[in-house]
Amino acid sequence: MLDELNSVAAWQALQRFAPAAALAENAFDSLSWFQEQRTATTAWLADVTSTMVHVRISRWPAAFGWITVIFWVALSLFAGISSSDSTWTFFLAFALPGLCLVYLGSPVTEIGPERVSLTMPLWPTYAMSWAEVQRVALDHSDDQFVLYGPGKRLTLPGPRWWRRADREVGLGAIFGHLEQRGIPFERTARAGFAPPRHACRARRASEAAKALHGCQRAAALGRLGWAMAEIQCGWAR
After folding, report:
1. For the chain, what is the domain count?
2. Taking the model in full, what pTM does it have?
3. Disulfide engineering: 173 pairs with which of 12, 111, 139, 151, CB 3.0-4.6 Å?
4. Is residue 236 part of a domain?
5. Residue 30: which domain range?
6. In degrees rounded to 5, what are phi and psi of residue 135?
7. Could you read off the pLDDT of 210-227 as tens digits, one per residue?
8. In terms of DSSP bridges, do strands 108-111 and 185-187 run parallel, antiparallel, or are they unpaired?
């Protein structure tokens, strides 16, 4: 019987018996509970987008890395004590992947009002200002965010790797900035394989200027060294 229903006739019957206020275009927006929820959400987004939000990686990668390091280091120490050969170095090499897990499992994503950055435990710090972000992409597995700018690309760990306590506020901060600034967002499989590109590693513009000046000075010294080497080679001939 449902297949025989006429959608036009059903809509005409709904218009005839339903109140006119319930059929208005903004009828849903005028509901009191919806207005309260929208007001609370707007206030929460304004709060998370006006402060610095720190998003940490889940403890499991770093914990598994420490367990791997301790296991192989202990095994190499046991091999070094029980034998006089260099077998312990072979076991010690297997601790390197664990150190990589500890390093990759310890970055902090900082989402601020002016910029977003990824701070590694020791070095480096990748950052991009929101004014430079042209679009944002996320892969289908929630593994990685990618922020695209003019000639640069900043990659951030996705919500899948975030701690549960930071997940809600982190997503609210990112999508709040996207909504405020009108930055387009898309889901694409390519985002899971995009490496960072030309992301600024300095925390402030002054540090970036110092780094650029240092690179220019190093390049000038390198050119001077090559010139002196060519002169010495000419003398030797």
Report:
1. 2
2. 0.66
3. 111
4. no
5. 2-48
6. -160, 160
7. 444 444 444 443 443 444
8. unpaired
